[in-house]
Amino acid sequence: MTLDDYDYHLPPELIAQSGAEPRDSSRLMVIDRKTGRIEHRIFRELTLFLKPGDVLVLNESKVIPARTFATNPHGTPLEVLLVREIPPSPLSQGGGSAKSGSGELWEALLKPARRARVGSRLTFLDGLEATVEAVQEDGTRVLCFAGNVWEHLEKIGKTPLPSYIHAPVDPARYQTVYARTPGSVAAPTAGLHFTPELMDTIRSLGVEIHYVTLHVGPGTFKPVHDDPEKHVMHLEPYEVSSETADAVNRARASGRRVVAVGTTVVRTLETAYCSELGGIKPGGGETQLYIRPGFQYKVVNALITNFHLPRSTLLMLVSAFMGHELMMRAYQTATAERYRFYSLGDAMLIY
């Protein structure tokens, strides 16, 4: 397939600028992969399609206020998106960072990037300082901070929002109700539809709810250029607890369904699958898993996800799960039925 195979026309007015209230009142398109049947529901009616014994897996990563501002030595203002903290190398465990020994290392995207050359000293609005240590192949800067970055972000950092959201958004609305582990620069948006009450109802049906962590990086919005086969995913850290791994493995062994809430959960579970064990291996690491047609799913049986950007890796992942023809029919139906798209929009259940 070519990149054009993942394109579709979306009227701009269908790009959601705010989330539904209450959260579980968003619309839900339900798609049966075997029959091709498409139903139109409300998200809280998800309970009609879950079964006792299902294992529902959610991503508990929490969006951090990663957007901040600085100036370079010439006074040029810079917008800074802190992508992730770089863990200390084993050699630096006795003190200091992996490179300069002077502070925390973070990967960051800067605008305008050309004003942040290696060696530049950046000064942030509250006086925090950082030095540009390196420029990586994709243009990401490595910053070494002389001070506590987390305190800085909590004090003056802003929640990063996708560029297609133009209206003001309450930061709490761009956070799942079960978010727990800080680290994402974009929300795992399929989870934004859940309320505590809906989750209690789901548990009462005999559905197990478990969690993984995948910290969403800016690569989730990285456009695919030309040949999809040559696209490279950004590294994203993930963690699967022993409890979640055991629950998923028990479900698979007994023929029960694993229902992934969002593409981040899909990528985490499929990354953690170990063919030698025949199941999920607990632990953590970083994933660059790029799922597209031809990929063989080993863990996930059903998927809850939002409606994604054209020509994106997220659309390719969905295509690999439900088939390209059915996916395109679902998206054509969604535009005709005036579903709301993207991060704050409506959802689909594919089973």
Please write the CATH class name of the largest domain. Answer: Alpha Beta
CATH architecture group name of the largest domain: 3-Layer(aba) Sandwich
SS-derived structural category? alpha+beta
The number of helical segments is: 6
Total number of domains: 2
Low-pLDDT stretches are: 91-101
Strand order, biggest sheet?
2-1-19-18-14-3-12-13-17
Based on the model shown, name its key terms.
19 strands, 351 residues, globular, nine-stranded mixed β-sheet, Thrombin, subunit H, six-stranded antiparallel β-barrel, 2 domains, QueA-like, alpha+beta
Walk me through the topology.
Blueprint: E1 27-31, E2 38-42, E3 55-59, E4 61-63, E5 67-71, E6 77-86, E7 105-111, E8 121-124, E9 129-135, E10 141-146, H1 149-156, E11 181-184, H2 196-204, E12 208-214, E13 236-240, H3 242-253, E14 258-261, H4 263-272, E15 273-274, E16 279-280, E17 283-287, E18 302-306, H5 313-322, H6 324-336, E19 347-350
Parallel strand pairs: 1-19, 3-12, 3-14, 4-11, 14-18
Antiparallel strand pairs: 1-2, 5-6, 5-8, 6-7, 7-10, 8-9, 9-10, 12-13, 13-17, 15-16, 18-19
Helix pairs in contact: 5-6
